[in-house]
Amino acid sequence: TITRMVAIGELRENAENPRKISGEQLRKLTVSLLMFRGMMSLRPIAANEGNVILGGNMRYRALNLILQMSEQELTLLNRYHAAVYQAISPHLTAEERIWLREATQPL
Fold it and tell me: Tens-of-pLDDT digits for all 107 residues of the chain?
């Protein structure tokens, strides 16, 4: 098995992917990727030599939605993350604060 990193723009969705999700499920997945950024390293998108996705088609769609966010949307999300960190971090242990800091980093 060969592992390599490629730009998301080089990937192609698999037209034969049997999995379909609703718009609401895609929205939830997108939010999940924004909140749990480490998910992509735990569950990377798998593709063949031609960059056709074999596993992770829905994560690919969700990532494309994130890439299409406007500057205003990104600014609002980053402000929200900063507010969450400010409000919650004083009540956490040092280890929990490290996790929260990573989870609320600006996009």
Answer: 677 889 999 999 999 988 889 999 999 999 899 888 778 888 889 999 999 999 999 999 999 999 999 999 999 999 999 999 999 999 999 999 999 998 888 88
- In contact, 8 and 60? CB cutoff 8 Å: yes
- Distances from the Cα of 92 to the Cα of 45, 83, 86, angstroms: 33, 15, 11
DSSP, residue by residue, the chain: -------GGG-B--TT------HHHHHHHHHHHHH-TTHHHHSPPEE-TT-BEEE-HHHHHHHHHHHT--HHHHHHHHHHHHHHHHHHGGGS-HHHHHHHHHHT---
- CA gap 14, 18 in Å, rounded: 9
Residue 1's pLDDT is 64
Place of tokens 């969450």: 84
- Which amino acid is present at 64? N
